[in-house]
Amino acid sequence: MLALAHRLENAIAVGEYNDRAESASRLELTRARITQIMDLLLLAPEIQEQVLGLERIDGVEPLSERRVRPIAKMLSWAEQRRMWSELKSNRSL
User: Fold this and answer.
1) Which has the closest alpha carbon to 23: 11, 13, 14?
2) For an engineered disulfide with 65, which of 1, 43, 44, 86 has Cβ 3.0 to 4.6 Å away?
3) Which of the 8 DSSP states describes residue 55?
4) pLDDT tens, 32-62?
5) Cβ atoms of 71 and 84 closer than 8 Å
6) pTM above the 0.85 mark?
C-alpha cells in the first residue's frame, strides 16, 4: 500500500489526477480509503524504507497495512520509531 501511496502522490503531482477525490473515483475507492493509504506517506523515511523492503511470502504481505496505520498517525517521528520498533519486536519482520 505504501508503494501505491507514492504512485498516487506522483500521479496527483504530475496532473494525472486533479486531487485525491478524483483518484478515489477513478480507482473506485472511497475517499476515506485513499486517505488511509496516503497517510502512510507520513511515516518517518526510514520506516517507509523498511516497509517497502518487506517481501511477500507466498503472495501474502508479512505485515498488514492496518497494523502500520496507527504508527503513521503519530505526529512525532520519534514516537513512530518507538512504535515501529515495538511492532517489529512482536513480529518476525
Assistant:
1) 11
2) 1
3) P
4) 999 999 999 999 999 999 999 987 767 777 8
5) yes
6) yes
In degrees, rounded to 5, the angle at the alpha carbon of residue 62 between the alpha carbons of residues 77 and 37 is 50
**How much is the average pLDDT of 63-84?**
96
Structure-block grid coordinates of residue 52: 517497502
- Name 3's Cβ contacts closer than 8 Å, sequence gap at least 6: 52
64 dihedral zone (left: phi>0; alpha: psi -120 to 50; beta): beta
What is the count of structural domains for the chain?
1
**Range(s) of the domain holding residue 7:** 2-90
Q: What is the largest CA-CA distance in the chain?
A: 41
Nearest to 19 by CA among 28, 29, 11: 11
